[in-house]
Amino acid sequence: MKVIVTKSYEESCRAAANEIITQVQKKPESKLGLATGGTAEQVYPFLVDAYKEGKVDFSRITTVNLDEYIGMDPDSPQSYRSYMACRFFGPAGIDAANTYVPSGRNKAEDEIQLFNEKLYEDKMVDLQLLGVGVSGHIGFNEPGEKLTAGVHIEKLDESTIAANSRFFDSPDDVPKEAITMGIGDIMKAEKIVLIATGENKVPVMKALLTDDEITCKIPATMLKMHRDATIVIDAELAKAAG
Ligand code: F6R
Fold it and tell me: Which of 42, 65, 67 to mutate to test ligand 1, by most ligand atoms within 8 A of the CB atom?
């Protein structure tokens, strides 16, 4: 793994965005795997700025998102489709037809089939952007005795529900399940860029960057086996995890 340590969370977002911009400049028809969540949120404005400044053209990319809550209406402001549309697809001039965000409303087996088609029917993901959960999840692959390779429905960890309750009126409103790429799907991306910040990510980042263990109990540790994974963290987190 390559580790980029920046001065601040803002600089981490800029660095992660630069990885994506470089990818699309090199290969304009890149297929990008995208993440939502609080950490990834500030990466997208850098992509939009680069687009507006004419530094990068996203018109030929295709995108696949990592996950969505089960039961979530794609039109809801809390859906990951809405998140992506307002933070990236709309402002960067990306045709919605070239994007896929799983629907939490469709019949599970139909959506899993569609997700697999979107992931594998033409080409593999060139670059996958990731955040990481306090539970150690990537996508919504939660810790357990074993992990799932392919697209599946995952029961969310209590710590994930607690962490994500900040995006809802109350913890009871947080969906309890999600449809997610599996660990195997994530690991098939040519390149992975993970961004992390915050005190609550210290134990997970210590497991990823300092300890020499790979464990299903901290799914992000699987990234140690990836041939081209870049971890972007700020100096504060790097010091605490070091
Ligand atoms: C989001 C996703 C999740 C988040 C993770 C971190 O699409 O797949 O793995 O990246 O839950 O979320 P934040 O950044 O809000 O702590």
Answer: 67
Contact (Cβ atoms closer than 8 angstroms) between residue 171 and residue 107 = no
Counted domains in the chain? 1
Pairing state of beta strands 2-6 and 62-65? Answer: unpaired
Residue type, 39: T
pTM above 0.95, yes or no: yes
Higher pLDDT, 142 or 170: 142
What CATH number did the domain enclosing 165 receive?
3.40.50.1360
182 CB within 6 A, ligand 1: no
Span from the CA of 143 to the centroid of ligand 1 (angstroms): 14
Tens digit of each residue's pLDDT (9 = 90 or more) over 177-212: 999 999 999 999 999 999 999 999 999 999 999 999
Question: Radius of gyration of the chain from Cα atoms?
Answer: 17
Nearest CA to ligand 1 atom 2: 139
| Full residue range of the structural domain in which residue 98 is found | 2-241
ipTM: 0.99
DSSP reduced 3-state for 109: helix
